Amino acid sequence: xxxxxxxxxKVTFSYSRKGAKVLDEMDIDIPVGKKTAILGSNGAGKxxxxxxxxxxxxxxxxxxxxxxxxxxxxxSGKIRMRSEVSILFQNPNEMMxxxxxxxxxxxxxxxxxxxxxxxEERVQEALFAVGxxxxxxxxxMKLSYGQRKRVTLAGVLxxxxxxxxxxxxxxxxxxxxxxxxxxxxxxxxxxxxxxxMSSHDTDLVYSWADEIRVLNxxxxxxxxxxxxxxxxxxxxxxxGLLMPSVYRMNRTFANLGKCELEPYPHTxxxxxxxxxxxxxxxxxxMNVVKVDKDTDIPALLASEGLEGLPIGIYGMSAxxxxxxxEMSVDFMYNGPENCIRKCLSGEDSVLLCDPIMVxxxxxxxxxxxxxxxxxxxxxxx
Length: 381
Description:
Blueprint: E1 4-13, E2 23-31, E3 35-39, H1 46-53, E4 61-66, E5 69-70, H2 75-84, E6 85-88, H3 101-111, H4 116-129, H5 145-157, E7 163-167, H6 175-190, E8 194-198, H7 202-208, E9 211-216, E10 219-224, H8 226-231, H9 233-238, H10 245-255, H11 268-274, E11 285-290, H12 297-303, E12 311-314, H13 316-325, H14 335-344, E13 349-353, H15 358-361, H16 363-370, E14 377-380
Parallel strand pairs: 3-8, 3-9, 6-7, 7-8, 11-13, 11-14, 12-13
Antiparallel strand pairs: 1-2, 1-4, 4-5, 9-10
């Protein structure tokens, strides 16, 4: 089996027989297990590509492969695809089928013929994940746009897909919820889900994606890690995109002789340390506390002598455990980076972390320590 989970081979698609080609002999591959971002300006074909990858639309020509097998457009084949490959569309109104929140979230699992108890469990977990458990009995029509978007994400999470496609998932959301959506995407990927996301926000994508695919003029014009694409200024301009701010500043500092171009930082904290002359002894300790959903957090912090330190949170089990105790948390959003910033200012910090998220949580510390830019002691509890 190849590394490609989903793959198109010269796929062409238009919405009418004489209409313009939205996809024009497109070749694209999605690697298994990775976080892949699909970039492109409006009209580049991102949403249409997603509908083809999910068997919602059948291409006029070319082939789509899933796990190296040609996609089946039989009724059973499409049902299988949609149970394994879920799409979160940009417009939540296109994904709502029931009048009340809990009914809408349960719609997918019920169609999978799951036992009632499992449907209930999935609905509860999904609503908590998106911060909508208090709206469980609410009518859909009374929800705001952002709340509807959260409910549709809950509906997708309740399906527990093998592949999650997210079409502009943070559009229309407040900044805090946008961070939370990206945390959910990270958690799913850490648990083995292949996550595909489109976005116009190149800063967000640059800090998140393992690889990018760039669409322009109905074709895929770039596949791979982000840096070679952004090094080609003309290609970036033709695709209607902007360079990520961290990438752009790193290149500027390199041109000024302040640092080497490589290694490439992907977050503000990584860039800050790279161009800094700070001494490693100034940095604090990052205490990463593994928390499952039943952990007594206050008791654990007391036993480790960690009370009174700035606290961040990261991952679903940590949020579940915190919710049970209603303890105060300093950084409810973007926990790892906020804790790293505290360490860079010389303070120790605590990150309450889902066990499967630890590697991602310490990635900035690994970047700083591994490249000799300083020493942040990471203590895992």
